[in-house]
Write a structure and sequence with these properties.
With 64 residues, the chain is mainly alpha-helical. The chain has one domain. It is 53% helix and 9% strand. The protein is built from three helices and two strands; from the N terminus they run βαααβ. It has a two-stranded antiparallel sheet. α1 runs antiparallel to α2 and α1 packs across α3. The longest helix is centred in the middle third of the chain and has 19 residues. The radius of gyration is 13 Å and the shape is globular. The protein starts with 6 loop residues before the first strand and ends with a strand. The relative contact order is 0.23.
Amino acid sequence: MSKAIQIREIDPNAETELEIDAQWMRATLIEVEGEATGTALYSMERVRRYLDGNAVAAKVFVCC
């Protein structure tokens, strides 16, 4: 029997979730923009900014 997949907003208090998000987004940017630019563009500060509803109109979701 297969397990149901859940999609939910990221938990802003779960450091592990935030770190994984930052790692994957950084990897995507490195692939698209190159090592130096991709690394510089994505950081934990940027992840946290996406979680601030007053700063941006974006949501971060996780699939588990």
